[in-house]
Specification:
CATH class of the largest domain in chain A: Alpha Beta
Number of domains of chain A: 2
Strand order of the largest sheet of chain A: 6-7-5-4-8-9-10
CATH topology of the largest domain in chain A: Rossmann fold
Low-confidence stretches of chain A: 219-224
Number of strands of chain A: 10
Largest sheet of chain A: 7 strands, mixed
Structural class of chain A: alpha/beta
CATH architecture of the largest domain in chain A: 3-Layer(aba) Sandwich
Order of helices and strands of chain A: HEHHEEHEHHEEEHEHEEH
Helix content of chain A: 40-55%
Oligomer: homodimer
Largest interface: A-B, 75 and 74 residues
Strand content of chain A: 15-25%
Chain lengths: ~220, ~220
DNA sequence: TAGATTGTTAATCGATTAACAATC
DNA sequence: TAGATTGTTAATCGATTAACAATC
């Protein structure tokens, strides 16, 4: 019922790198679809993302057989399949914890909503912030976490609190039933098994850029 | 002159994964230093970050010999060495291009400045934005890019423009002498060799989190 | 000294790429 | 059919981990 081709070979969790590339494939496929294309080959898809064509086929084959020999991949069909695989063929209610500058920016960020992630609750421990309204949502104290998470069936949280508070708040999130944390605080969170964390550290990324620029004296390519 | 231990073994560019971990080591070392500690072993440093101790030693050994057998690493000394290696022992002037919600958040984000990255110029193509002042900086049109980049010796740019504009603006940045781009737009940029790009795609990260949560039925650990 | 811990080699593991029979 | 392209196996490459002599 869910896809027209053969089923996935196994129920193993894909390696991190594969999942990341699948997100990129999906984005590029949507781009091709908007251009009116209907099929794409692994070579074309790979070239547009600077990824080897065998890698594209192998990544996709991890989840099942989606291609047509001699033809390539049907774009519309592959988009639907990848959305299902990534779990973004439905909406994800999202809690945003920490309404500092970064938090407020995340709230306004369009990229989340357009991928099915809806921020449905705001939390902050600062009494100045509690009760304030941003984008139609009222900031609640962390004490309200358990109730709101349960009522709104929230499984994911974006964490944009200061580094010192991050682990403590993460513990609360876990206790209140959150299953996944997108962590913007510059600390390595420790969470129990069964809870997922993805870290987004902007400074680490910028430091990497500085390193690359410093170690590139013209002529060598580092387009990664 | 620059560090008290033996010099690096070679001048090769470190793999991406190594550089990312070195940023994490540095952050954790700074944390230990604030706690008043003076030395740390690879096991202790690794444990605090969920990284194997052999990996810690190997990563550091890539850049030189910093440790003392039987003692570990002297924290103050290692911090200085890693700052130098990452190229953040000096300030990096940074241009911010695109003053939408995300751009304005990046401008206010403290994490950059505290790591030595100073936003010194703002650019946007929107006539509504040009001339406006944010945090004491006036938004300039992209036509002013070349002059400002050269006058202020800017080598790095954070790019937070809409996806449709990203490649075009990136081309301009490169033409005007930018050497490194921190790309927040959800597209894969194509740049000439000698120019570095680091992509930060918040939706990709959130999709990864959704995938992990969806594929974790309690009991299995995914603390990555 | 004895104990601790490094830097490094060798072993293992996983990820990427090339090659090609099977398929449309 | 001939040409194109898949899925997959085998070969390659790189990254991680274990083990240990060297060192303080």
């Amino acid at each position: 019922m869910r896809d027209p081709r053969r089923d996935p070979p196994a129920a193993k969790v894909a390696p991190k790198a594969v999942v990341g590339r699948v997100s990129l494939y999906l984005r590029q496929l949507e781009h091709f679809e908007r251009q009116g294309r209907t099929t794409v080959s692994s070579s074309q898809l790979g070239e547009s993302l600077s990824i080897n064509n065998a890698q594209v086929r192998k990544d996709l084959a991890f989840f099942g057989q989606f291609g047509y020999p001699g033809v390539g991949y049907r774009i519309e069909e592959l988009i639907a399949a990848l959305r299902h695989i990534l779990g973004i063929d439905h909406e994800w209610p999202l809690a945003l914890v920490g309404l500092g500058n970064l938090g407020r920016a995340l709230l306004k960020y369009r990229g989340f909503r357009s991928r099915g992630f809806h921020i449905v609750a705001l939390f902050d421990n600062d009494p100045e912030k509690v009760g304030q309204t941003f984008d139609g949502l009222t900031v609640e104290p962390l004490e309200a976490l358990r109730k709101t998470v349960s009522v709104r069936m929230v499984r994911l949280a974006a964490l944009s609190v200061p580094a010192e508070a991050a682990q403590r708040v993460a513990d609360q999130l876990v206790t209140c039933g959150i299953h996944g944390i997108l962590n913007f605080a510059p600390v390595t969170l420790s969470v129990p098994s069964g809870v997922s964390v993805v870290a987004v550290d902007l400074s680490v990324q910028l430091e990497h850029l500085a390193y690359k620029v410093q170690n590139t004296q013209g002529g060598i390519s580092y387009a990664g």
